[in-house]
Amino acid sequence: MDILLRDLRYAARKLAGTPGFTLTALLTLAVAIGATTAMFSIVDRVLLQPLPYPRPERLVFVESTDPTGHPMPASRMDLADYEKRSHDFSASAVVDAGESMGFTRPGVPAVRLSAARVGASFFSMLGEPILHGRGFVTGEDEKSAPMVAVLSSLAWQRYFGGDRSVIGRTITLDGSAYEVVGIAAPGFTYPRSPDVWIPARWKDYEIGDNARGMHSIVGIGRLREGATVESARRDVQTVAAQLSRDFPKHDAKVGAYLQPFQEYLVGDVRHALWAMFGAVAFVLLIAVANIANLFLVRAEARDAEIAVRTALGASRRRLVRQLLTESLLLAALGAVLGALLSSWVVDAVRALAPNTLPRLTELTLDARALVFTVAIAIGSGLLFGLVPALHAGAADIAQMLRERSRGATRSGARIRNLLIVTEMALAVVLLVGAGLLIRSFERLVHVDTGFRPEQLVVFDAALSGNKKYEYDGPVIRFAEDVQQRLAAMPGVQSVGIAGNRPMDPDPTFQASTSFSVDGEPKPEKGSEAESRLIPASPSLFHALGMQLIRGRVLDDNDNRSSAAPVIVINEELARKYFPGRDPIGKHLTFGISHDTAAGPGDTLRTRGEIVGIVKDLKMGSLSEHPEAATFIPYNLLPLGTTFVIRTTNPLPVLARAIRSEVRAVDPNVPLYELATMDDAMSESVAQPRFYTLLLGAFAAVALLLATLGVYGVIAYAVSQRTREFGIRIALGATAATVSRVVLRRGIILAATGMLLGIAGALAMTGAIRSLLFDVPATDPITFLAVVVVLSGAAVVASWLPARRAARVDPVIAMRAE
Q: Is 412 among the domain residues?
């Protein structure tokens, strides 16, 4: 212990005696450790740590698959059969996310709450994540049971000020009274961060054999003891195959899929997060190589000291231990600073990360992250301390003194060169990855959306579930009254009404339905043509600035109930189902049923004549492939109430007026998702933007460290060759000749590293292939740009020492020698 304390005191004095070296190495290490620890915290929380539920490995997620095998929501009836006929579940619950409910209070404007309908066993199956009160109990999802609700912790704080007396009180949701029975635990946000959970009471049209075609919900289950994910998956797939035979009208070629609940929650971020963690590991390696170079230079500067200590009897083991103590002490200090930095990075990630990043509210710098920090600090300290320690421990004293008289040792120079080549290679891989993501993001935000997003304001009105708007007539009157009021506002050019709109994060109505072409043979069950339905007012096309390809768009006459039903299709539907043919004039019959919303006198329209073709709209995301879509007159299918306003006024000016006009029509109808279309598009690309920023930041740090590394090596080489350059100049060498000698070495090192890096990038860019949009992983422009940037950085880093070498005064150089 005494020896260790003496070594620590000596190491502290040596580090304090070289403040420039210590500060540079410390900052480099702190940035690398801080970034790595923060990224580990994200990966650990999202991917590695189990969900905060009892025995989370027993939880599974159940959904259906379409005829092509892709996952899709299930129907209520199919999920009920999976539960009854399978043998591997001890409990299960349906989950219907994305509901919208109007919350009304006396004297306060109505607000819209996002809601989730769940089975009665939902909370108990997840271990009762309840802060106050209780979750649902058996039977509360029956029609005859009293209506109850559980509030989220955020909604409880926002609307009730955290008052615990709300438990047992009645609140009004969609005009109906619900008793609040519980407050969910903070951080519990499944599914899709609802404000309120209500028991899943099924309406008549959601149950029965005819409802098997309504694929809108999913299920979660808990496996019984002895069951495995694989056995349960085979079980529900067997049930789905039987349902496909029993109910060919709705379930033909519809399958089932089951996966671990955590795997479902993580979704497509697993691959991206591991790629980001690999990138930050590269940054750490570059930092370690840089600090190893600094330690090696410092060790060579101490050759005389080491030689004297060896001559006085110090063992090589003792010298190696002393140098490792210095590196580990520096690593410990770097770990402390890195931990502080990582806490800031985690906070920044929480602020910048998209809501689609799972378990976002759980991100924190916990004990596991601190243990990881200590581990990488020790590993880093050993790595960058071992090279100079072994160099000092293996050196021959006489040779060391001879080479010291001439300058740097040859072995030290070789190690430094190898480290720089490694840094450059790693930097190339990171820069190529960042460049590909930047190019991809640039392509994404400039993709043709099919509409003009500038000067567009959008919002939704929450009518769903409100008994006053149970039938079409009141919905149409509300929409038309609001449209007229908005159109009369100053600066408003046009107002469109739709069932849903582009970039809608929470669409009220989103349905795809099968259709057949009148006069053509009907396809067999399970292979029918599919189209997305978009209820649209005639003014929507102008408000969105959509481009007409052929024919005409809808007009006011088409919106009348007495008019012959007409529709407008998009390019994708024409391309997919009418290749080489003219679809104008064809009649389509849709498989959707609107009976449940039809009141007295309403006429159900399930057919329509194609009168026009419009350019494809990007509806869900900018990266999606356009799906076949049909625009149907809004008054014939008024499901969903979205308003699109083209205006010359900014949103802050319009927002209050918009709310006022909606309240004037019905004060109990809340509006939500009020935003500009530019903001909505920005939100839709939040996830790729987050990955691009993250990898771009890592690449920028890598570029800086690699450039400093090249500069440090070349500058040190110049300082060791001052006498040589002085003699050259004295013998007639020009400044340009000396500069070329120095530049050549830096460029050769950089070029070698870049060649290795390009080979590595070609092998590793596949790791981010799934994150790219419209850019190949071997994009030559990106590779060329990286080579140019790194070459320029290497030239600048080498030119500064070369400039100093060219200005060496021979007399001063010889006198100093």
A: no
Closest CA to 122 of 100, 96, 86: 96
Amino acid (1-letter code) at residue 639: L
- Tokens 């999913």 belong to 218
**CA 627 – CA 530 distance, rounded (Å):** 9
CA–CA dist 777, 658 (Å, integer): 46
**641 shares a domain with 695:** no
| pLDDT tier, 598 (very low <50, low <70, confident <90, very high otherwise) | very low
Per-residue pLDDT tens over the stretch 267-283: 778 888 898 999 999 99
Of the listed ranges 291-305, 427-441, 471-485, the least confidently predicted one is 291-305
Task: Identify how many contiguous H helices and E strands the chain contains and give both numbers.
Answer: 24, 22
Measured between alpha carbons, how far is 560 from 636 in angstroms, rounded to an integer? 8
Backbone φ, ψ for residue 226 (5° rounding): 95, -20
Last residue of a domain, one of 253, 288, 312: 253
Q: How many domains does the chain have?
A: 4
Same domain, 346 and 471: no
The answer to whether residues 338 and 291 belong to one domain is yes
Q: Compute the distance between CA of residue 156 and CA of residue 166 in angstroms, rounded to an integer.
A: 9
User: CA–CA separation, 708 vs 798, rounded Å?
Assistant: 10
Contact 219, 74 (CB under 8 A): yes
Quote the CA–CA distance of 253 and 332 in Å, as a whole number: 60
Count the neighbouring beta carbons within 10 Å of the beta carbon of residue 536: 30
Range of the domain at 613: 463-669
Do 50 and 71 have their domain in common? no
Residue 645 has pLDDT above 90, yes or no: yes
- State the Cα–Cα distance between residues 579 and 507, nearest whole angstrom: 31
Give the 3-state secondary structure of 272-327.
HHHHHHHHHHHHHHHHHHHHHHHHHHHHHHCHHHHHHHHHCCCCHHHHHHHHHHHH
Indicate whether 751 and 817 sit together in one domain: yes
Q: Directed axis angle between helix 316-352 and helix 367-394, to 10°? A: 150
What's the pTM value of the predicted model, to 2 decimals?
0.82
Report if residue 100 sits inside a domain.
yes
Residue closest to 566 by CA, chosen among 477, 651, 630, 643: 630
- 665: confidence class by pLDDT, cuts 50, 70, 90: very high
Distance CA 314, CA 321 (A): 11
- 679 within some domain: no
> Do residues 222 and 104 share a domain?
yes
Report d(CA 415, CA 384) in Å as an integer. Answer: 12
The DSSP secondary structure of 7-45, one letter per residue, reads HHHHHHHHHHH-HHHHHHHHHHHHHHHHHHHHHHHHHII
Query: How do residues 308-347 score in pLDDT, each as one tens digit?
Result: 555 555 556 666 677 778 888 888 888 899 999 998 888 8
Closest to 482 in 3D by CA, of 653, 595, 638, 649: 638
Q: What is the pLDDT of residues 558-575, one digit of tens each?
A: 877 667 789 999 999 999
383: nearest Cα among 297, 317, 289, 299: 289
pLDDT tens profile 194-245: 999 999 988 776 776 667 777 788 999 999 998 999 999 999 999 888 988 8
CB 695 within 8 A of CB 433: yes
One domain for residues 226 and 107: yes
Q: Are residues 439 and 480 in the same domain?
A: no
**Structural domain contains residue 705:** yes
